[in-house]
Amino acid sequence: MTEPPGEAGPTEWSVPANGVGPWQGEPPNDPRYDPALLRDGDSRNVVDAYRYWTREAIIADIDSRRHPLHVAIENFGHDANIGSVVRTANAFAVDTVHIVGRRRWNRRGAMVTDRYQRLMHHDDAAGLLDYAARHGLTVVAADNVAGAVRLEQTTLPADSMLVFGAEGPGISEQMRAGADLLVSIAAFGSTRSINVGVAAGIVMHAWITQHADVGRSW
């Protein structure tokens, strides 16, 4: 995992969550469980099924059932939207989040979920597009531009790499030219665009509804 450094965010133990106290009764004889968490309790931002598990065990379990969906972030500023996209990608067990351009990013919006999510950095759009080509991924760029098809009327490829750009500049011309498919989200109000973190969540969920086995969700 090639993980770009980021600005300081919440620690594993400072995230507000409904935690659990020390394990009651005989502790489980299972290597997935962390002896310190069993003894002291677990206040981490994880689902109940992962309570008391080590971080390594959680990652291994998610890795065993990640979806073949990749998400890329391009042209983002130094803001919490990157963290928001990472957090949503973690919730949907996305294979990898790719960050294009600037290495450092504000992790606060990720709420520590970046510790469980595969992250990869690319210097530029060419690097990302090359990665997609080498791994057989269909590049789907989300942007409200001429020529984009409505997400609501589109079947997303199972092997998608969804690309999102910052509000305002959107994705780069190079990324737009290299994309296999352009999609847009239908809007009905006065604003030109919706928050990119929200947009990313909408498109990721559209892929989930089309390709994921929701019976395996928590």
Automatic annotation (TrEMBL):
GO terms for molecular function: methyltransferase activity. InterPro entries: Alpha/beta_knot_MTases (IPR029028), rRNA_MeTrfase_TrmH (IPR004441), SpoU_MeTrfase (IPR001537), tRNA_m1G_MTases_N (IPR029026). CDD domains: SpoU-like (cd18096). Gene3D superfamilies: 3.40.1280.10. One of its GO terms (biological process) is methylation. The keyword Methyltransferase applies. Keywords: Methyltransferase, Transferase. Residues 69-205 form the tRNA/rRNA methyltransferase SpoU type domain. The keyword Transferase applies. SUPFAM superfamilies: alpha/beta knot. Pfam families: SpoU_methylase. Residues 1-37 are annotated as: Disordered. This is RNA methyltransferase. It comes from [Mycobacterium] vasticus.
